[in-house]
Amino acid sequence: MLITDIHSPSDLLSVALAAADEGDNYFARCQAEMSLCANEPSAAVFKALVESERERQRMLRNWAEAENLMATEGISPLEWRDPNVADTYDAAAVDPIRSTPYRVLAMFAHRADHGFRFYSYVAAYSNDVATREYAEILAGEELERASLVRMQRRAAWHAERARLPQQPELNPANVASLADLLCVATSLEHCVGIGLSHLIAHYPALSHVALASTETLDDIQSLAGMAGVCSEDVAAEALAIDESCQARSHSGSKSATLLLPLYADLDRCFSYYDALVSCTEDETIMLQAQQFAFSAMARIDLVQEAVLE
Known about the structure:
CATH architecture of the largest domain: Up-down Bundle
CATH topology of the largest domain: Ferritin
Largest sheet: none
Strand content: under 5%
Structural class: mainly alpha
Number of strands: 0
CATH class of the largest domain: Mainly Alpha
Distance between the termini: 38 Å
CATH superfamily of the largest domain: Ferritin, core subunit, four-helix bundle
């Protein structure tokens, strides 16, 4: 259904109801997936969003009854995209491993903004006066929802910063030799290994990831024996990784809450190796970093598969 297919307030009501119903079903599926992966903080936020969408359906039906509007039969959720806005915004929010309350709320604020733009577009271009008036009302409601969720999102952001330790900053440009790469890689992979050791008992399928990580670390240590000594700057970065990892391992976090840090550690490995491939002028470093990046990406996929088993 296109914008030009909305000819009356009944058509507009039907689209709004279908959107709320689609949101209800979508958020309910996300809630179930979060619970399956023991991501209870995000599951709780998705549950609240389900309740919000159901309340919106009730309000729309009450409004339709008060205005004597009848929903148009056969209208499904509208496919409409703003060409200036990316449509992959919610990828991290709905990933059971990467999802956090902040990311879920950010996704919902984005959807509310999208709804506001859609209804504003209808209000601007509809040929029917009543449809334009109702579209303006719906646009205003979406704007209010977006504003409210942004306040909640800010609170979630501060809560997450206080809860999750900040990872040390790494600069791939500091790598001037294979020894430098192997020094940082040893610390990065050691951190991944510690994270896996805390999770194996809860997620036995992660044993495949642990084996792959052990093999990668063995390869790194074998190469390091012939690569020489790393620079002071790189040694400082490796030490910062080790200290950050040690502090987290002593925090007493439950196994379920360690999934996100594990994913973040693997993602950090991939991002670091991949950035090094792009910035180094040394072919040996580039080829080795490519191999490590491939390994990290493969293990990210394995983690997702293992958690969802």
